[in-house]
Structures are given as structure tokens and as C-alpha cells.
Amino acid sequence: MTAPWTPALPDGDAPIYERLVEALRLDVESGTLPAGARLPPQRDLAHRLGLGLGTVTRAYVEAEKAGLVSAHVGRGSFVNAPGAIAGPRRREGPINLAQNVALNWPAARVIGETMQRLRRRPDLADHLDYAPAAGLERHRRAAAAWLGRSAGFATADWTRLVCCAGAQQGLALAFGAAARPGDVVLCEASTFHGIKALAAHAGYRLQGLAMDDEGATPEALEEAARRTGARVVALLPTLQNPTGRIMSLARREAIVAVARRLDLILIEDDIYGAYAPGAPPPLAMLAPERTFHVSGVSKTLAPGLRAGFVIAPDDAALERMLDTMRAIAYAPPGFGMLIAGQWIEDGTADAILAEIREETAARVALARSILGEPLAATASPTVPHLWLPMGELDAERLAGRALRGGAEVTPPAAPIVEPGQVTGVRLALGAASDRVELEAGLRIVAAALADVDERSRPVI
Q: Within its chain, how far is the Cα of 80 from the centroid?
């Protein structure tokens, strides 16, 4: 820069130091302050703006907390590159292809600014009190709006929505309202391991359903329901975990027809719905009178943002969920949904999701270029987990060889409910810190896959 930075403070009632940080952020985003630019010494800037030195010093400190600048003793404060602000960090140990988590750096870049914005909200202190058992009305309305915007659930009813500490707790509330310990619960032959963990903890008996390229089949559902007497069905219709399959509209309507004919209760885990914006409508739109709809933001905005929600099919089911919430937690936590709700209301959530979708699509393309045909076809270009179908023994061999090579995949036994039906290896794409690390992990898997193929050939 040819002249010292002299910001124009935005109007408003916020403290001057906060407005100075906002001016800095705006100038960084516009390019007025390019990456690497050195900010004026605090005393000089205070003199030119007619401010107290303490005000400017606090603004610089807050800007560093927000990731806008980096301060170096004896050298000054320098503007961070946009890609370096709260960027991804690599963990120690094997490359992580096992955890199905959302990319966290899009949210990390804005969390500091969000905290500053939340400090100015007049209802901030309200979140220190116990919330109603279903959550604060503002949060519930925001969650319903998010389901409509991100996952096509246009009829989401906030009055039957319960906020909770993540979608896993939402599943627990739904299961607790629909089933009793000892009951048979139907699910896909391979399913989300969190459903298995919940069933083991609460004493439900899982029965796996045969699957095809769209997920559980209506024929398998009807046969298993008649044979076992089960009344509860837990399904992931969109980007099924672990296989990534999506039920067509016709398949969803067939599942609903069986559920109505046999009076079954559906528990729909739609946590990945936001990754497939073109997917058919949720089961809860097709059969609202018998479907618990579970979702959240930890898989789409940030893993540590434990803000989930579950919509009950009727008032009686809602009351049963609220009884459970009061018994296990008294009330949902307020601050996770405070952040999520702020992002939903001001559009930040949409921007984070768009960035995550774009990066996920690039990661899917990278995985396909390295692993090729062995990968199952993907139902969405932005699926966050990929499926390598193979027998159980080969899957265990692949997992072991990959781990010895330095990459950890999802344990092959983790999703299996019915052995021998749907088996393989799930590759989660979101935990790797960047595409360089992801590529290294995928090449380890490719080498392990080649070794497994060689070992599996018959020898004569």
C-alpha cells in the first residue's frame, strides 16, 4: 500500500473497537487490505482516527482472535490470506478416512466474527436460562426454515420440532417415543453405526432389510414386518450410510404404502439431505402422520456444533419426546442452536453449505480418479462418503492393509446388521484436512485394494 491504512468506521451503536474490527474485515474482504499487508502501528492509527490507544489495541486483539490478522512481536500485525484464516489442521496418526464429519474450516473462518455479532444480540443472556423442553421458539423456527432451504422439507412444522444436542440425541428421542426395550426395529441390512449403538444401549433388537441400488426394498419391509411383528422402521432414504444410495420417489411412495398398510412407524434419519439438493421429498412429507424426521447441522456446518432437531408425527409423540428430554437433559442446550440459528437467519449457513458442497464434489472427483471402477456409483456428486462393495473377508483385509500403510477407514463390521448381505468398506471424505492429505490416503487405499485383489485370486 502506498498510504497507511485509514479505515472508515461503519455507523452503528456498537462499541468503537467492534466497528474498527468490522471495518478491517470489510477492507480485507474487498481487497483494500491484501494478504500480507502490515497494519499501521496502534499508536499511529489511534492518532489519525482520534481514538484512544486502548480502543485500537483492543480492536487489534479482537481481529487476531477472529483470524483476520496475525501479530508478531517486534514486527507488527499482518493481514492473513483468506485461505489461511482458521484453516484446516492436520491431526497426528493415520490419515482419517473413517470419520464421516463435515469439513470444518468454512465454519472456522467465520466463528470469530459470529461471536462478536452474538455479543450484540439483546437476547444473548436468555440462553443462560433453562430453555423450554422443545427449545426456544426462535431456534425451532430457524431449524424448520433450514430443513426447507437445505433439504427440501418444505412442510417442516416448527410446532412439532424439538431441538436437541445433535441428531444422535434426536434419534434417541424418536426411538424412545416409538419403541420399547425388547422391541424389534427394522432397518437397512447395513446402517449407520449410531443406530446400532443406540439399539444396543436401549435394548432394541435390530432386524436388517434386504437392499438394492435404492436402499431397503418394500418387499423386504413387508415380509420382515409380518414375520417379526415389528412396528418401527428406521431408514436413511437420502445418501444412505454407509452405501450413499438414494431412494427414488417411487421407492419412497412404495415404502410409505407398506407402512400405511401395516401401520408402521417410520424414523427417518435425513442428516445427509443437504448434500443431495435434487433428492425426492423426505418420507416425512409423504407420510407426515407416521414419520419422525431427524436431522441436524453437525454434518453440514461444523462437527462440533451439536445442534440437532427431530419432528414428531403428532402431538402425542411430541409429548413422549418432551418427557424423555426432561428426564435425560431437562432441556436442550441453548448455545449450539444459538450459533446455528444465527447462521441460518443471516445466510451464513447457506454460504458454509455451498462451500462444503463444492469442496465435497472436488473430493468425490478426486476419489473416482484414483480408485475408479471398484467404487460404487454415487447417487449425488456431493456425497460425503463413498462405498467400496466387497465381501466381509476382503473388506477386513483392505482395512488392515490400509491402516498399516497409514490410512484408517471405517471398520467394515461397524455398519453391518445382517451379515453377508451388504458388505464393503466406507470411505469418509470430510475428515482429511485438505485434498493433498486426502489424495495420500486414497492412494494408500488403492494400493491396499490392489493387494487384496491379488490375494483373492484363486491359485491353481
A: 27
The pLDDT score that the predictor gives to residue 86 is: 46
Distance CA 202, CA 299 (A): 24
Q: What is the DSSP string of 211-268?
A: EETTEE-HHHHHHHHHHH---EEEE--SS-TTT-----HHHHHHHHHHHHHHT-EEEE
Coil, strand or helix: which one is 191?
A: coil
Distances (CA, A) of 420 to 11, 188, 392: 66, 13, 7
Q: How confident is the model at residue 182 (pLDDT cuts 50, 70, 90)?
A: very high
- Three cell numbers at 383? 456425497
Q: Which residues of 109-137 are buried (b: 16+ CB within 10 A; e: fewer)?
A: bbbbbbebbeeeeeeeeebeeebebbbbe
pLDDT tens-digit series, residues 235-294? 999 999 999 999 999 999 999 999 999 999 999 999 999 999 999 999 999 999 999 999
Decide if 69 contacts 27 (C-beta within 8 A). no
Residue 408 main-chain phi, psi, to 5 deg: -105, 125
Residue among 102, 93, 71, 73 nearest 167 (CA): 102
Specify whether the backbone of 458 is left (phi greater than 0), alpha (psi in -120 to 50) or beta. Answer: beta
Paired sense of beta strands 308-311 and 291-296, if any: antiparallel
Distance, in Å, from the CA atom of 347 to the CA atom of 357, rounded to the nearest integer, reads 16
Are the beta carbons of 293 and 284 closer than 8 angstroms? Answer: yes
Q: How many CB atoms lie within 10 A of CB 87?
A: 15
**pLDDT level of residue 29 (50, 70, 90 thresholds):** confident
Structural domains in the chain plus CATH codes: 16-84 (1.10.10.10), 95-106+349-456 (3.90.1150.10), 122-346 (3.40.640.10)
- Residue pair 97/428 in contact (Cβ under 8 Å)? The answer is yes
The predicted pLDDT at position 311 comes to: 98
**C-alpha grid cell, residue 409:** 477407514
pTM: 0.81
Task: Give how far Cα 394 sits from Cα of 266, 285, 320, 398, 454, Å.
Answer: 34, 40, 44, 6, 11
Pairing of strands 95-97, 407-409: parallel
* Range 392-411 average pLDDT: 96
33, 45, 54 from 77: Cα distances, Å: 12, 13, 16
Give residue 452's Cα distance to chain centre.
Answer: 32
